[in-house]
Amino acid sequence: SPKLISSGSGIVLDNGIIVTNFHVIGDGLRYGIVYNDTDEGQEYRTSSWISINPSRDIGVIPSPDINEKPVKLGNSDELKLGEKVVAIGSPLGLKNTVSEGIISGFRKINGYNFIQITAPISPGSSGGGLFNTQGELIGITTLKIVDGESLNFAIPINDVKTIINNKDTQLEIGLNNLMS
Fold first, then answer.
1. What distance in Å separates the CA atoms of residue 11 and residue 127, rounded to the nearest whole number?
2. Structure pTM?
3. Choosing a second label site near 155 at 20 to 30 A (CA), which of 28, 104, 135, 136?
4. More confident residue, 41 or 52
């Protein structure tokens, strides 16, 4: 059978979890996690997830390294048009790639809120962090419109907080797969 491998980005939060896009973890059975300070060629492994929200493109998996430093969360309701932002991800597997841009709009797509940004997003950046100039996480990068220039989008962090705290989307760690 074919071996399917994909890559993406994720963010460690303070409750021992990693948030990413659902399309990054998708139907995966095992996940290899490389942190900022992980040695070249080394990865942590897990095969479980905590919660998913496919329609909002959010997936949450446990952080195998409980000592990994979490990001500071911001408030996406306080964002302003034209505000400078930084996207950090691993486009095409290039770990910790930083791109700068501005908030160029606030959009509703299929009934969901998105932050439109000019910071470039490439395959592998999905699930990465969007940060304000204070270093606070304000969104999770998710998609781009291919036919346009600088039409990139992130899920507002306040929407992500709501999903993470929603008991209807949470599953016990290990329900997906007990073996790591």
1. 7
2. 0.86
3. 28
4. 52
